[in-house]
Amino acid sequence: MTDKSTAGRKPNYTDDDIADAIADLRFNGQDLNGKNVSDWLKAAGIAKAPSAEAVKKVLQRLLEREKKEEKRRLLAMLPTGMIKELQPCLEELTSQVHLLLARAHRDMQKTTESSLNAANASMEYRDKRIASLEDDLEGSIEQAEQLTEQLAKAQKRIDSLLTERQKLQHKVTKLATAKATLEGVVKTFKDP
User: Fold this and answer.
1) Which 8-state DSSP code applies to residue 46?
2) Are 30 and 36 in contact (CB under 8 A)?
3) Which of 84, 107, 177, 188 falls between 20 and 30 A from 122, CA-CA?
4) Do the beta carbons of residue 51 and residue 8 sit within 8 Å?
């Protein structure tokens, strides 16, 4: 039986050729891999340039089939009474495995619950801290608004004082001019 390669062309080797390669490579103590099997097929003149990847897929399929056949052969060799005698032991072993799994599951649930409680507590603290910071921020915003309002009032007062100062300076200038004029008039009367 042959499989089509992924390239779309039919391989020029069979499953039997791969099985022969497996037997020979095992006999020579070489690793069973796609490259070694491809090299064996080339050396045997079966295939000119087999794809190591395609050969690897066939190799894996044949090795898997070999394992299943070995398992069936071994199980068939067991005396029929032995399986019946082992049944209570297997049931006890299964029961112990189930108990072990149940305990592990319970412990995992406790750990998860503990972690979840710690995470919830942390989130509650974070939420309270955020609420506190939001309150602080609102207070700071209100304070900033009050300061801005006070600054605006102070700026109006400064503008008002500057306007008043300019008016006073203008009056001082007029008074100085009037004084100079008055002094000039007085001087003309004193010194005719």
Assistant:
1) S
2) yes
3) 107
4) no
